[in-house]
Specification:
This protein has 6 helices and 2 strands, in the order ααααββαα. It is mainly alpha-helical. It is elongated. The protein starts with a helix and ends with a helix.
């Protein structure tokens, strides 16, 4: 495969992902969320009942900034606080039904793009892409370690 084929593959995947991103952005606007606030909703979903401090650490923001964003998301009905079963002094965060719906719609949009791309690939091509991904991921991790 020559470089121009790799560039064209990148362009196709990039266009499809841009379409998905635009779909998600329009949904966020419909829900009245900024991309920043959506990242908090997504992080609460990814971490599964995290504390505010865990969310702040993962997003690399101060606890004060995270507190303001989480308070807004609680008042808007996307996130709720629950008491930790291990330590009653700690509040964990969880998605409400509204927050779960938002995440589900986002994942469905991404899933449809992946399904569309997958539909034109053979099993061997999918296996080749997986091998390429593993190599690129290792390269990226090596660069993160150096930085």
């Amino acid at each position: 495969m020559n470089n121009s084929a790799i560039i064209k593959i990148n362009e196709i995947v990039h266009c499809k992902m841009e379409d998905s991103k635009n779909n998600v952005l329009s949904k966020m606007q419909f829900y009245g969320l900024t991309p920043n606030l959506f990242s908090y909703v997504e992080m609460v979903w990814r971490l599964r009942n995290p504390s505010l401090g865990e969310v702040a650490k993962e997003l690399r923001v101060s606890s004060a900034s995270a507190s303001v964003a989480i308070a807004k998301l609680i008042s808007d009905g996307y996130i709720k606080k629950t008491r930790s079963s291990q330590d009653r002094r700690i509040n964990n965060l969880a998605l409400t039904k509204k927050g779960e719906k938002l995440i589900r719609e986002n994942k469905n949009a991404l899933g449809s793009v992946v399904s569309e791309l997958n539909s034109v690939l053979s099993v061997q091509e999918k296996e080749a892409i997986e091998k390429i991904y593993i190599k690129l991921k290792a390269l990226h991790e090596d660069e993160d370690i150096k930085n």
